[in-house]
Structures are given as structure tokens and as C-alpha cells.
Amino acid sequence: MRFIGVIAGSLIVASCTAPEASSPQDNVPLSSTITRSEARIKEKWRPLVKIVSQKPQKTPPFRVTGKEWKIHWKNKAEGELILILYSADNPDYSEILANTSTPDEDVVYLTGKGQYILEVVGKQPYEVLVEELR
After folding, report:
1. CATH architecture of 2-133
2. Cβ(126)–Cβ(72) under 8 Å?
């Protein structure tokens, strides 16, 4: 019992002592965090295609040259909204990126350089913005 009191007393004393002075190196975040943050600061999202409509549309082919790109879509009212992405080099290949019938919005992140066509099926107000990271 006396042994436990000595340990508890030394823990209290240790926790009440002043913190040691830290060197400037102690406050440096992990280098991977710095590198990633610095890289993101230098990169910019560049718009490629913007659609604000309330009728079905198919974009002309657009070229993606960046390492990453995104499609931000917004369905502004009740009604079906479908986004279909085609490869301009192989129009038989398609991928449905969004299919909703309620007011909603989302961002789809993609990778892969090339030429693409985006088909938007919707009869209510909607917005679509395609951007690439440069």
C-alpha cells in the first residue's frame, strides 16, 4: 500500500513539472504532409465543360490532359437526371456516373487522360461542371 502511494505521488510530481523547452524541429509536421500540401497549393482546377440546362444534352468531345479530373453535377428539382460518360475513341464503351430522381448533387473524381463525351439526360433544371487538375 505504501509502495502505491509513492508511485502515485511521483506521477503527480511528474505531471506538475514544467514542460521542457521544445526545439524548432519538434514543431515540424510530417514531411509527407508538407509535400502533399505544397503540391495541392500549386495545382489548380481548370474548367473544361459547363452545362446549365433543363433538357437532354450531349457534349462535343473534350480532351482531358490532367492527371485527375472531376464532374460536379447538381439536380435542382424533382425529375430523373442521368450522366453517361463515353470515350470518344471508343463510343461503344460507356459508364453511368449518376442516376437520381430527387434534388441532389455530388462530385465524381476520375483519372485517365483522353477524349470523352458526356451525355446528360434530364428535363428539369440541372448543372454539370467538368474540371481537370493542372
Report:
1. Sandwich (2.60)
2. no
